[in-house]
Structure formats: C-alpha cells, structure tokens
Amino acid sequence: MTGFTEGSLNSRLKDLNSSQQSIQTLSLWLIHHRKYAHTVVKIWSREILTGSESKQLTLMYLANDIIQNGKKKGPEYGQEFGKELAKAFKQISLNNCSSKTRQSLTRLLNIWEERGVYSKIQIDEFKDAFGKESAKQPTGEPPSKKVKHSHNHKSKKTKSQNNGIKKDKEVIVEVDGTKELRVTLSPKTPVNDPPEPEELIKALNDLENAPSCDAVVRERISKLPPEIADVSLLSQLKGKDEGEELLRKVNDAVALLTDYNTRLVCEMEDRKKVFSMLHDFIQSQRDLIDQAEQRLQEYQSKLQKVCQVRQEVNTHLQNLPDLAQLPSVKGGLAPLPSAGDLFTVG
Q1: pLDDT at 106 over 50
Q2: Residues 23, 25: Cα–Cα separation, whole Å
Q3: What is the pTM of this model?
Q4: How many CB atoms lie within 10 A of CB 80?
Q5: Among candidates 185, 216, 201, 223, which has minimal Cα distance to 278?
Q6: What is the pLDDT of residue 132?
Q7: Which of 22, 39, 317, 331 has a C-alpha 20 to 30 A away from that of 300?
C-alpha cells in the first residue's frame, strides 16, 4: 500500500469519481492512513469549497464511507469530519444545489442520525447549515428510499459477538429504482490495521538477529560440563572444594540458561506479532488485488469498445472516395458554356 503524501492525496481526489469502486478504493487507502486524518479532512474540506456540485456530492459520499467503515479502526475520522461537515453542508447549500443533490444529502443526514454516527445536536447543526429544507425533513428515511441488506443485521451482530468474528455487510441505497450508493465491507478486510511496508521490513530484519540465531550463546550452552545436569555424578565428588566448584558452575549455567530462555520467550512474542503483521498486510494486499482486477476488467472492456470503434472508423475510411484519383484542378476548371453556345444550332 503506497505511502501517504499530500500530493498523492490530491492526485487521488482529482481522479475520484462517483462509482462505488472509486469511492471504496480511496476510502480503504485513507482509512489505512488514518494517522493523517487531520490533514486528509483539511484537504477534503478545501476540495468541497472549490468543487462542482457533482464533485461535492461524491466527496460527501466518500466522507460517509470513511466515517462509517473507519470507526472500527478508531475515532479519528469521525472527530475530524465532525469539525468540517457543517461548513461543507453550508457551502453546498450556498451553491444552490439541485433538488436531487439536496435529497441525497438529506437522506445521508437521516441515516447518520438513525445509526448514531453523530449526536442529535451535531445532526441539527449540519441540517441548520444545509438550510431550512433539510431541517424540515423527517428523521426517518423517505418512502422513496429503499435500503437492502444482504444479511439480517440483528442476528448477524449477535453471531459476531458470540464468535468474535466480523462478517461482511453490504448496503445498497436506491431512489426510485436508481442505484445511488453501494457500500461493501469485505470479509477479507483485516480486523487489525495493516502495517506500513517499512514497519514490516524492519520487524523482519530484527528477526535476523533473534536469540535463536545467537550462535555464540548456543555454543556456550553446548559446552557446559555434563556434571551440572547429571545428579548421578554427585557421588563422584571427593571434597568440599569440588562441591563448591560444581555449585559455581551450576549457578553460572542457571544464569546463562535463564537469560537465554527469557530472550527466547520474547522472540516468540515478536514472531507472533510479525505473523499478525504479515497476515494483516497480506489481507490488505488481497483487497487491493481484487480492486485492481475489477479495474482491469473495467478498462479491458473499455479498450475492447475503443478497438471496435477504431475498426469501424478504419472500415469507413476505406469506403470513402480517393480524392487523389480526381482530375487535377491546378490549372483551373474548364469554362462553362455560354448561353449562346447552348442554343447554337449546328
């Protein structure tokens, strides 16, 4: 997953369109980089102020996806967007947005209120900023709106609580039969935040110097005298001095082994963490691969259509007359006959 920079965010926002795939791809990337939430929302707010009406609506859908799908990772985006949304709604309202855009955003506010995304006080603030028309809308979803859920959310939540597993969820919002927005949480999306590539590389490099690879200590342990671990050899002791010497060796061996075992336990914990990091990183890459495959199929289809058009154009060009075969007119055209020539009787 590529690193975050303001330049990369500006580029991605420029390429953003209203399709489900485009919104979810950018949302996943921004949720991954949630530690930059403050910067992200500031740039998002700037785009809202300067964008066209259609772009503003797309940016609001993006904010909705980030807020709702990112809250399981942390409250950063919800808090940062909460500071800017009133300003965004006011700007959209001042641009005299169309009734369709107003209905879509009013519906979004109602959903946030019903799901508790923001408090009643905040929702009222957003509605006041958006204008009187949205403030008069009922808190429930309008009759023309249909919300389809791919699973029974109540039973799914209970099962998720019992098993500790987060299931996938799909919501399709339609208005008068026209699909508006589709949000899908993939079951393959890792529960933990996937690490940055640099973090993962550092963790893997650290394992190269792990205690289990410490050849010096392992050699010292292999050279410990056998009498320190064999009780039957105690009978061979001939005096107090030999006993004290053996006790010293045993104490040294205990200290050496205790220290090494402690380091090995820490190594096991580190390896478990690296395993978890690898798991989350691989899962996030699989998500990106799936999205890339979808984009590839989309653009392959577009390429096929363009190639068909090119073939049609080439065929059309071949059927056009060859202007090079027409008589030369460089010397001028032959003079037209006069009226007298036309009526001259031979």
Answers
A1: yes
A2: 6
A3: 0.43
A4: 23
A5: 201
A6: 52
A7: 317
